Amino acid sequence: MPVTIAPQVYWVGAIDWTMRDFHGYLTEAGSTYNAFLIVDEKVTLIDTVKKGFLPEMLARIREILPLERIDYIVCNHVEMDHSGSLAELARIARPEKIFCSSLGKVGLTRHYKEDLPLVEVKTGTEVSLGRHHLMFLETPMLHWPDSMMTFLKEEQILFSSDGFGAHYASSQRLIRNRHDCPPKYFYELKKYYANILMPMGTLVTQLLDKVAKLGLEFRMIAPDHGCVYENPDWVLEAYRTWAAGVTQPKGLVIYDTMWHSTEMLAHAFMEGLMDAGVEAQLHHLRATHYSDTVTELLDAGLMFLGSPTINNNMFPSMGQFLTYLKGLKPKKKAAMAFGSYGWSGQAVGLINQELEAMQLKPVHEGLQVRYIPDPDELAQARELGARLAREHLLKSA
Ligand SMILES: Cc1cc2nc3c(=O)[nH]c(=O)nc-3n(C[C@H](O)[C@H](O)[C@H](O)COP(=O)(O)O)c2cc1C
Ligand SMILES: [Fe+2]
Ligand SMILES: [Fe+2]
Question: Is the bond preceding 143 in cis, omega lying within 30 degrees of 0?
Answer without folding.
Answer: yes
